[in-house]
Amino acid sequence: MLEVVLKAVARAMKLEEHVFLKGHGEEGEMTLRFNLYPCCPTPERVLGVKPHGDTSTITILLQDKDVEGLQVLKDGKWFKVPIIHDAAIFINVGDMAEIMSNGIIKSAVHRVVTNSISERISLAVFCGPH
Fold first, then answer.
1. Cβ neighbours of residue 93 under 8 Å, at least 6 residues apart?
2. What is the Cα–Cα distance from 14 to 86, expressed in whole angstroms?
3. Are 5 and 97 in contact (CB under 8 A)?
4. Which residues sit opposite 32 in a β-bridge?
């Protein structure tokens, strides 16, 4: 699956199809993380995760199907990443993709906000060179 995604990202960015695969070498590394963001009575004062870029090449994210929380920074403003129903995945570009593309692709700065009504669960798979 990783090979298919990396080739597709390269093609979408009008780069040579194997640019990310070459950077990964023979084997890539995938790290899985389950995230639980509990309800927070003061979500305007508490972030689930502070603003950052992932160190991976790409991050494959399966978001909570009912609760929003992921936001991306674009042109100095924070935008909500909408919930994608029917088990769709969200792919985030990380620092290694920016390095491998010589800056053509930019690592996505993002954060997670908390919610006062419901907890939020997500599953992230970080894909990078071994």
1. 9, 57, 58, 105, 106, 107, 108
2. 29
3. no
4. 125
